[in-house]
Every structure is written in structure tokens, then in C-alpha cells.
Design brief:
Strand 9 and strand 10 (about 315) form a beta hairpin. The protein has ten helices and twelve strands. About 35% of the residues lie in helices and about 20% in strands. It is globular, with a radius of gyration of 18 Å. Aspartic acid binds near residues 204, 226, 238 and 259.
């Protein structure tokens, strides 16, 4: 974790510690759920070391966020803390380890939203800000805007004191190899869309978190490098409120991962909340319908994590797997990688 991220955690943790209470006296349950992207995640393709590395990092992210909630910090602090851990890990498609554009650079998108006030912040196409999730939060907290893009977003982040790094910092060998393969496929198929078709493992890997704090407030956040080989300047669903991220206390908090164009056209995150608000569906019904029916029928791939004000979690996806985990109302930790039939409970 970088010094800035560490500073944020250190600044928040003492506050968390002094407000700590035992589980028996906890007034309302706190819950955190995260995802690390959806795609062709199959047990047969996963080495034991790789699986252990993903499980360990997901659990680390969960524990970092949960420590905030357990100590009384607000939901957005937990979302930020969990996402920071994943942005710093090369395992995920966000921050260090983000996928490469067709030009061979990293352009990242991120957003946050509060369920209590409806306030939100986002950045798109940042190339030098080490932790895009902190920039998204800074837009919400220190500007009158919701979404800043491109060099202006990086400049704003720098002016807010957020660490800037060369673009090479984000680029990893694994992602370079992935881009090479993608270029081969693209020249074989002749089109961007066809190069992505049937290869959901190569375009997913976004990270996200949703949290419910002790005050009963929800928050959501999402951070991504987007899709491998994307055109310069392409912006996905992750920084678009209602598409990749949504939070409203009276319904739910949602973070999505998948083929962003489908999430944007389908307002996937907002639709989960809307089905609860206007359709009378519960969280599980709403999230499943949006992913399994709306997204799937349009040909989109991916999934969401969703959390309601009662602390119920739903994590449907239509890909082979989705990196995901949660710490539930009883403090139980679960981490899953594969589709439910193959899911291992822990
Ligand atoms: N939704 C992201 C995007 O389209 C990609 C992903 O979730 O993996 O930018």
C-alpha cells in the first residue's frame, strides 16, 4: 500500500478503534461486500497458488474495509479502504495492474456514491493518479462536480495532494502479454467487438465495494482500468452513476463489473434499485432479474454486488465466475471465485 493510502487508513483507524464496541453491544449490523471482477474464472484454469493469492487479497480487502465499519466509521470509508487494497494489487484490473488500451497505456475510471445524501464523485480516463478511487472521492468532497475526466481529473487529483505516478507504474508484464494476445485476435477478427466476444476473462477484473455502516447508511464504489484494447478516450460504466455504481439508503448499494457498454445502455446498477423502489422486488429478486434477464438478454456479460439496508447481500453474475466476498451481519467472512455450483464456503 502506498504512503498516501496508508496515511488515509492510519488517519481513520484510530477513530475506528476508539469507537469500537463488542459484537454483542453492536446497535446495528455492519456489512461489507466486494468484487474483483467477473469473467471466465474456472477452477480447471486456476493454479492452487493463483487461487490462494486471489483469496488472500480479497480477504485482506474485506478485512481492511470491515475494520472501519466495526470501529464505527462510515460506509464510504469502508468502501474506500477495501478498494485501495485491490487497486494496489496487480491481481486486479484497477490501479497497479490495470488493463492496457489499444495504445498500450492505462486509462482508469472510478466512482463513489453515498446512500445517505446521494452525493457522488467520479473520474474517467485518469493516467497518473495512483489511486483513482481517492480521486473520485475528492471530486465528491472537494469540488462542485460529479465527474472529471482526462488530464483535468489528474490535475485536480494532484492539486488535492493525491500521489501522481508515471503511467508505467500501472503497467504490468501480464497485462502487456494480454494486450499482445488481444491484438492478434483483433487482427484475426478485424473488429474490436469481435475481439472481445467470448473472451470475458480478458476484459473483466474491475474492483468494487458496497457497505452498510452502523448508522444504517449505505455506500458504493467501483474502480477499473476498463477493457483491454479499448480505444483511447473510451469511458466505461464504472464512473457512470446508475450504470456501474449506485447507492441509496432506501433501496440498496450496487457495484457492477462486466462489459461496460451493456451496463451503460441498461443502467444496470440503478435498475436494481429501481426494481426495489418501484417494482416492490426484494434485493435478491431485483439483482437477479437485472443480471440474469436484462443484461443477459441483451448479450451483456458480468455481474453485480448489491447490499440493502437490512444487510442482505446479493451477488449474481452470468459469467463463469466472479471474484467476490463479504463479511456478513454476524461477522462471517466468505470469499468465492466460481459459479455457485462450485462455490466453496468458508
Ligand atoms: N465494466 C468495466 C468497463 O467496461 C470492465 C470490467 O468490469 O471489467 O470498463
Amino acid at each position: 500500500m502506498n504512503s498516501q493510502a496508508l496515511f488515509l487508513l492510519c488517519a481513520l483507524l484510530p477513530m475506528a478503534a476508539c469507537q469500537n464496541t463488542t459484537s454483542s453491544s453492536r446497535p446495528t449490523p455492519v456489512v461489507l461486500a466486494i468484487h474483483g471482477g467477473a469473467g471466465t474464472i474456472l477452477r480447471k484454469n486456476m493454479s492452487a497458488e493463483n487461487e490462494a493469492a486471489y483469496r488472500a487479497k480479497l480477504e485482506e480487502a474485506l478485512r481492511a474495509g470491515y475494520a472501519m465499519l466495526d470501529g464505527g466509521s462510515e460506509a464510504l470509508d469502508a468502501v474506500t479502504a477495501a478498494i485501495l487494497v485491490m487497486e494496489e494489487s496487480p491481481l486486479f484490473n484497477s490501479g497497479h495492474g490495470a488493463v492496457l488500451t489499444s495504445a498500450g497505456t492505462c486509462e482508469m475510471d472510478a466512482s463513489v456514491m453515498r446512500g445517505d445524501t446521494g452525493m457522488a464523485g467520479a473520474v474517467a480516463g485518469v493516467t497518473t493518479t495512483r489511486n483513482p478511487i481517492l480521486a473520485a472521492r475528492a471530486v465528491m468532497e472537494h469540488s462542485p462536480h460529479v465527474l472529471l475526466s482526462g488530464p483535468g481529473a489528474d490535475t485536480f487529483a494532484r492539486e488535492q495532494g493525491l500521489e501522481q505516478v508515471p503511467n508505467e507504474f500501472f503497467q504490468t508484464d501480464r497485462r502487456l502479454q494480454q494486450l499482445e494476445k488481444w491484438r492478434e485476435r483483433k487482427s484475426a477478427t478485424g473488429s474490436l467487438s469481435e475481439a472481445w466476444e467470448g473472451k470475458p476473462d480478458e476484459r473483466h477484473g474491475t474492483v468494487g465495494a458496497v457497505a452498510l455502516d452502523r448508522e444504517g447508511h449505505l455506500a458504493a464504489g467501483t474502480s477499473t482500468g476498463g477493457m483491454v484494447g479499448k480505444l483511447w478516450g473510451r469511458i466505461g460504466d464504472s464512473p457512470i452513476l446508475g450504470a456501474g455504481t449506485w447507492a441509496a439508503d432506501h433501496t440498496c448499494a450496487v457495484s457492477g463489473t462486466g462489459w461496460g457498454e451493456f451496463f451503460m445502455r441498461g443502467t444496470i446498477a440503478r435498475d436494481v434499485a429501481a426494481l426495489m423502489e418501484f417494482g416492490g422486488l426484494d434485493l435478491e429478486q431485483a439483482a437477479r432479474r437485472v443480471v440474469r434477464t436484462q443484461l443477459t438478454e441483451k448479450g451483456g456479460t458480468g455481474g453485480v454486488i448489491a447490499l440493502d439496508g437490512q444487510g442482505r447481500v446479493s451477488a449474481p453474475f452470468n459469467t463463469a465466475g466472479m471474484y467476490r466476498g463479504w463479511i456478513d451481519q454476524k461477522g462471517r467472512v466468505e470469499v468465492h471465485l466460481y459459479a455457485p455450483a462450485a462455490t466453496e464456503r468458508r
